[in-house]
Write a structure and sequence with these properties.
Blueprint (H helix, E strand, L loop, with lengths): L8 E5 L6 H9 L3 E7 L2 E8 L1 H8 L9 E5 L5 E10 L6 E9 L5 E10 L3 H4 L3 E5 L3 E6 L8 E4 L8 E3 L10 E2 L6 E7 L17 H20 L1
Length: 226
């Protein structure tokens, strides 16, 4: 599945100090600090529009989206978002890393796995579907990166397993990782443990009997005197 098309991301080179105060001034001005690197070129500190970056991150292809990057004073390049930082409370973007992409070279990315349908092992056999591997790492050319992988699980029976080797294969995508790694499986519902009956505690009579005996005998002794 091809990546969606976005307008070019415009980046303005930053100058001066690159400390927290400088980054704060960038954000106050309505931009966010970023770094552009890769493709055998020097890293460049820039500023970008957070609204444009947020739109890309929230798209179907997310951070795997390839877009045109125009850094002022440099030739346009293809790029991807490889890292980003959000403000912990409000979730606003604080910083991003952009990587230049060579479209003729294979690259490694992680893509989401989407399970489609209700397994027969759940519908008719009382099992539970567990989605173990929600992302898989692949290697392919940039233009062949899928936004996600749809996996049909309707035929999966109780105790059935989908391994990495069972995912759709094509000549353009290479899966990385162990072929027998579990992507999803249907397992039996866990039975509630039956609580064992607690044995009734025997009354403690030995020590109390010895202690209370003299007190019980006192009235009898008084009766004899009378």
């Amino acid at each position: 599945m091809a990546n969606p098309t976005f307008d070019a991301v415009v980046a303005t080179p930053r100058e001066g100090k690159f400390n927290k105060n400088a980054a704060r001034r960038v954000r106050v001005a309505g931009k966010i600090p970023a770094v552009v690197y890769g493709a055998g070129q020097d890293a460049v500190a820039v500023t970008v529009d957070p609204k444009v970056i947020t739109k890309i991150l929230h798209s179907e292809s997310g951070h795997n989206t390839i877009f045109d990057l125009n850094v002022e004073g440099a030739s346009p390049v293809k790029a991807m978002i490889v890292d980003w930082q959000n403000e912990p409370i409000k979730g606003k973007l604080l910083h991003i890393d952009l990587k230049r992409i060579a479209m003729n070279k294979a690259m490694r990315v992680s893509v989401p796995v989407v399970l489609v349908g209700i397994p027969v092992g759940v519908k008719a056999q009382g099992g539970v579907l567990e989605h173990v591997m929600r992302e898989v790492e692949i290697e392919c050319l940039p233009n062949d990166i899928p936004s996600h992988l749809d996996i049909d699980v309707t035929g999966l029976e109780l105790y059935g397993v989908i391994h990495l080797s069972d995912l759709p294969h094509s000549g353009s995508i290479k899966y990385l990782g162990e072929e027998n790694a579990t992507v999803a499986h249907v397992v039996a519902t866990k039975e509630e443990a039956v609580a064992e009956p607690v044995a009734a505690a025997e009354p403690e009579v030995a020590k109390k009997g010895k202690t209370d005996a003299p007190a019980a005998a006192a009235p009898a002794a008084d009766a004899k005197k009378k």
